[in-house]
Amino acid sequence: MLIEFSRPAPIETHPISMQKYIVPTPSINELYRRVKKCIKLRVPGAIVYAMTRYGKTYAARYVAISLKMDFPHLITVTFSCHKKKTPNEASFFSNLLRAVGHERPESGLAYQKRIRLLNKLLELLVASKQNLLVVFADEAQKLQVEEYEWLREVHDELEARGYRMITFLIGQPQLKNQKTALKEARQTQIVGRFMIDDIEFHGVCSAQDAASCLLGYDTACYPSDSDWSFTRFFLPQAWANGVRLADQAHHLWQQFEDAHDEAGFRTALEVPMTYFARSVEIALTEIGQDGADFAFTPAIWRQAVEESRFSASEEELLLNIEPDAED
To answer: How high is the mean pLDDT of the chain?
Structure first.
């Protein structure tokens, strides 16, 4: 193979091969805009919700990374929530201690862990010379009232020391139901700190969205300091002849539309990022055969969408929705 077609790294190390990458999408960019607005206005908390597989966890990770790039001294903490039959205060604070990088997350009683967490956060905030802490709680629909109360204690103790804590609850649409239930139960101390704003996270909603996502594959590079875009890495000869994923947005979107119609949906098409990205990965790594004459075809995209299991996910969602529609 000519030098210009020789990949600069083994193909198995590529982020796409390892499925460890994030391509910015219009929805992610909009989420980042909303998060920055909340921070600017010092909104104490917001819920970010979407159906499963829409990519909200990856979006939150992208937002946290972007915040660190745009605001290098900002302290951010991300933790995952765990479902428990009975909330356990010691386990809750151990989870938070791990999230902030404490060396002894498991030792001690619950109140001792809470004190160590507060001290660690104060240490980080003092070193940052900022008075702001941004927290992302993933799978937040699993949180129970007791856990919100424990998190509120951290919020209030930081505030008493002159620091602001802004919390983004990332989860499924049940979060909106939980907010309503908490308001009806007059749990204003929770809603007022963690659920002031509502941010709905969307999937890929149009051919224009698809083009924006695909452009990410044409521009993101691996290695990051090279000019080997993701598309070029897997199709170097086709890339040299002008093949670009962004030009395929209409053809790929048409295949999602066809699958959506066949599933019997009458609502607007919205593709979860998981299935969109998987379709692109399949086209790049399993179907596309690089060569000077290679070109994407509708058949390639049809096969990629089929193998992504998008249709199966649509059918499952339809089964889950229909009973409610009949009530």
So the answer is: 92
Confidence of residue 137 (pLDDT cuts 50, 70, 90): very high
Rounded CA-CA distance 269/251 in Å is 15
The overall pTM is greater than 0.85: yes
Q: Are 49 and 175 contacting, i.e. CB atoms less than 8 angstroms apart?
A: yes
Q: What is the pLDDT of residues 31-87, one digit of tens each?
A: 999 999 999 999 999 999 998 889 999 999 999 999 999 999 999 999 999 998 899
For the four alpha carbons of 320, 271, 80 and 166, in that order, the dihedral sign comes to: negative
Q: Who contacts 200 (Cβ-Cβ below 8 Å, separation ≥6)? A: 48, 49, 50
CA distance 223 to 233: 10
Q: Where are the beta strands (DSSP E) in the chain?
A: 45-49, 75-80, 132-138, 164-171, 197-200
CB 27 within 8 Å of CB 245: no
What are the structure tokens assigned to 95, written together? 């989870």
Query: What is the tens place of the pLDDT at every residue in 92-107?
Result: 999 999 999 999 999 9
70 by Cβ neighbours in 10 Å (0-12 / 13-18 / 19+) ranks as: exposed
Q: Are 217 and 230 in contact (CB under 8 A)?
A: yes
β-bridge mates for residue 75, sequence order:
133
pLDDT value at position 2?
56
Backbone angles phi, psi at 324, to 5 degrees: -65, -35
Half-sphere exposure of 87 (CA within 13 A, CB side): 15
Residue type, 35: V
Q: Tell me the pLDDT tens digit for each residue of 151-205.
A: 999 999 999 999 999 999 999 999 999 999 999 999 999 999 999 999 999 999 9
Mean pLDDT for the stretch of residues 315-321:
59
CA angle 136, 142, 144 (to 5 degrees): 100
Beta bridge mates, 135: 77, 167
Whole-angstrom CA distances from 318 to 117, 268, 325 are 44, 13, 10
